[in-house]
Structure formats: C-alpha cells, structure tokens
Amino acid sequence: MTRVPEEPVSAEPEPAAAEAQPANPVDDLAALLAGQRYLAEPSLATVLYLGLRLGKPILLEGEAGVGKTEVAKALAAALGRRLIRLQCYEGLDVSSAVYEWDFARQMLEIRLAEAAGAVGSLALYSERFLLRRPLLEALRPDPAGPPVLLIDELDRTDEPFEAFLLEVLSDFQVSIPELGTLRAEAPPIVIVTSNRTREIHDALKRRCLYHWIDYPDAPRELAILAARAPEVPARLAEQIVAFVHRLRATDLFKLPGVAETLDWGHALVALGCVELDPATVEATLGVLLKYQDDLARVSGKQARDLVAAVAAGVPAGAGSP
Asked: Which CATH superfamily is domain 26-93+138-212 in?
C-alpha cells in the first residue's frame, strides 16, 4: 500500500540538494595538510594540487624559516609516501646526489672471481654494484606510490649541478654511461626549495610550478603556533605573535621566521613563562635573532618598548617603538 504524504510534494529540489557542490580537491588537500599540522594558505594548496595533478615539480622560494621544507614533510605524511631528501650544499656532485659505484664490493668480487677462475664472466657494472643516492633512489618503484623528493636549498649548489637537474626534472630519468638510462615508472612528487641567496636559472624554473612563501599574517601565525605548539597558553601565544610581528617591522639583518616563533614558544613554556616580561624577553632574544648586530639593536630599551607596545595592543608597524 502506498503511503500518502502528509504535506504536498514540491517539484522544486530541496535547498540542500540545490546548493550541493562537488568537493573541492584543493580544499581536500589543504585539509590533509592541516591533519599534519601544516596550515597551507589557499594559493599554496592550489599550487601543490596542480603539481600533483600535472606531475610537475614545484619550486618554493621564500625567506629561511617560513616553512618551505615542512611542506614536503607534511605532504609525504599526508599522502602516506616516503620522503627522500637531498640537502644541497656548495660542491654537491653527482656521486653524492645521484649514484656511485661500490668499488669496495667490485674489488671483492674480482678477487673471488679470480680465485674461482671466472673473471671473464664477471659484470662489474650492473645494478647490484650501484649505490643509489637520493635522486636515483626517488626514481625507484615504491609499493606505496611515488615518493616525495625534496631538493632542499637548491640555491646553495652551483650552476653545473643545477644544469644536471634539468634531465631529472623534465624526463624523470638519469643517464648512467655504464648502464644506460634509468627512468621512473611513475614520476616522484618533487619539491624544490630555495632561500634565494642566488637566482635559480630560468631553464629550471620553466620546468616547475612556482610559489613564493611569505611570512604569514598574525591570525595565520597564531593558528600555526596553536597547531605546532599547543602547550603555549593562549594569552602568551597572542603576545608572542604580536611581538614577532613588531620585530619584523624593524630594520634587522635577518627577520625571525615562523620556525623561530615556534622555537620561542617552546622556550618560553620551558621557562614557565605565562606572559611576556622585559627580563624574559631580553634573556631569550637569541632564540629569535641569530646575528649579533640584530641582538645589539633590539636589546635594552627597544626590547622593553616592544613588550610595552604588545601589552598596550599597539598594532605592528604603527611607528617606532
């Protein structure tokens, strides 16, 4: 028997159904990163999504300490992928970044083959003698899916190494003279970071999606502090962020980054601090500032004025303290 509805049935769709929108994959990715305590702004989440969707490397530039390296760590954890990190430095070469041959093992195999009279059948340049460094390791198949390859602080290397990367970042392959070309079955997720101590060449930039990570505004930095250092009391966290933002408005050689904000929060909690005071700030300025000239500039009266301005709720950048 058919039940007659108690109210007339409208031909119009239900409001919820009419307003239903397809899921936004960028928002989904931002939520995954937030689950790893990384709060990505919409523009960054969009670039990361496009990098994943298009299979293109992502070049992240910004001042030291703004969270570029953490992007790769959070992305790998959120996607359940292995993180492979290549830390760049001046003089980095192919043997440290890509591969080298295990000469000690090759010599041992030669001695054993000589003893057995089978030197002629020994293949010295095969994959079992190959020592894979980060770039080549990232091309290896992984049951969990392609790994996240972090090429960290590329600006520390020289231009010849940067030129070598062009093959890896465009074709996801490495040419080894003794073996041939080794190519990834599925390209890794590549995050390249730079502190911009020198300009990255245009040829490499063209192969990447680009994003500049700036210092966060006060509400976002407060949210980052709450996510990364939840033990910091709310009132102290507000004062920490207000102080750091006023500090960034001064003329310093090196402005404190988000990493320093988090370190300062941990340090103040370790000291049992519940509210900023001039003496504690003076004693812990070395957590925020890493250059003697900056410490000398802020110490003393300026530090006390900054604390007073924070207590009075004066907005950052509103005149000199």
From this structure: P-loop containing nucleotide triphosphate hydrolases (3.40.50.300)
Distance CA 240, CA 221 (A): 10
The pLDDT tens digits for 177-193 are 888 899 999 999 999 99
d(CA 135, CA 188): 10
What pLDDT was estimated at residue 312? 85
Q: Residue 148: which of 112, 179, 188, 120 has the closest Cα?
A: 188
Distance CA 187, CA 23 (A): 26
Assess contact for 186 and 148: CB atoms under 8 A.
no
Domain positions in the chain are 26-93+138-212, 99-132, 218-307
The pLDDT-based confidence of 160 (bands split at 50, 70, 90) is confident
Alpha carbon distance 223, 33 (integer Å): 14
Summarize pLDDT for 18-52 with one digit per residue, the tens.
Answer: 454 557 999 999 999 999 999 999 999 999 999 99
The model carries a pTM of 0.84
Q: Is 313 left (phi over 0), alpha (psi -120 to 50) or beta?
A: left
Which of 220, 242, 240, 244 has its CA nearest to residue 232? Answer: 240
DSSP assignment letter at 129: G
CA distance 51 to 112: 49
